[in-house]
Design a protein that fits this description.
Length: 296
């Protein structure tokens, strides 16, 4: 298949590009810069110049593709309304281009805000305030001839080179001299290795029916205290609790997310696609030094 990928040079997108190419698919990646275009060319992929605000480029990419994978997002924490607006506009533009074709449209989302007090399930509806409600917008096209597939990613999509949430926790630990968790540390996250996430996206394109939500989750529930303790061992720093009221002060923007329960099940995903994660666990990678060496 000829697959159009937004965010093709990003953390998850670059692994997805590699996975698709290795499986014999062709990849056209949205590229905002000459550097991004060069990275794609070096892999054997094709670049389509544009960004999330270039709706004509998005329509063109979707129209000319056999499948679309939408991973890009502005992630502007200082202006979340603008990020949500751009996300919704991008999903709408590509979904309209795919209407009536029956082609796969894989759309990324996270697990933030899906449910509280229990592990999120694939059957749980996405919250309206997540990425401008783009998940539910994309799913509305499943009845209009688009094979929409939602992939919800664990808050930690980890691996060597990760620049996501765990990296922010490491930066806060180095800055403050302690590896911290919030409150009693019982809040739980899920996690998945980057390679497993990329493989799930490929399987979603190839096999998933229209209208399903998939969970890119290998480890369903890891307490935030366990994450902090692993980082403390790896960095040789003391481990301590921080008052939730001081979350943003201590951790920065990641403090808000560190206080959210984002555990999730992937049982339905595994049964549907035969997806079996094989990558190392998050704590294994932390203790192996993937996220840095001791300060001393």
């Amino acid at each position: 298949m000829n697959v159009f990928v937004t965010g093709a040079t990003g953390w998850i997108g670059s692994a997805t590009t590699d996975e698709l190419l290795a499986a014999g698919h062709r990849v056209v990646g949205l590229a905002r810069s000459d550097e991004s275009a060069a990275k794609l060319a070096a892999k054997g992929a094709t670049a389509l110049r544009g960004d999330l605000d270039d709706l004509d480029a998005l329509r063109r990419g979707a129209t000319e593709a056999d499948a679309v994978v939408h991973l890009a997002n502005k992630h502007d924490w200082s202006d979340p309304e603008e990020s949500d607006r751009a996300e919704r506009a991008a999903v709408h533009a590509m979904a309209e281009a795919l209407t009536g074709t029956g082609r796969p449209f894989v759309v990324a989302n996270g697990l933030s805000g899906v449910v509280e007090g229990r592990a999120a399930l694939e059957t749980d509806r996405g919250p309206a305030d997540s990425r401008g409600d783009s998940e539910n917008l994309a799913l509305s096209y499943a009845g209009r001839g688009v094979r929409t597939v939602i992939v919800r990613f664990a808050p930690s999509v980890h691996g060597a080179g990760d620049w996501g949430f765990v990296t922010f926790l490491v930066e806060a630990a180095r800055r403050s001299g302690v590896s911290a968790y919030l409150g009693d540390g019982s809040t739980a996250w899920s996690a998945v290795h980057r390679s497993d996430a990329a493989r799930l996206i490929r399987l979603g394109i190839e096999r998933a029916p229209a209208g399903v939500r998939l969970h890119a989750v290998a480890e369903e529930s890891i307490s935030t205290r366990a994450i902090a303790e692993a980082l403390g061992k790896a960095l040789q720093l003391p481990v301590t609790s921080v008052d939730p009221a001081r979350a943003e002060e201590h951790f920065g923007v990641v403090g808000f997310f560190f206080g959210l329960g984002m555990a999730a099940s992937s049982a339905r995903t595994r049964a549907l696609l035969g997806w079996h994660p094989t990558g190392p666990a998050l704590e294994e990678e932390i203790l192996a030094g993937v996220y840095g060496q001791p300060l001393r």
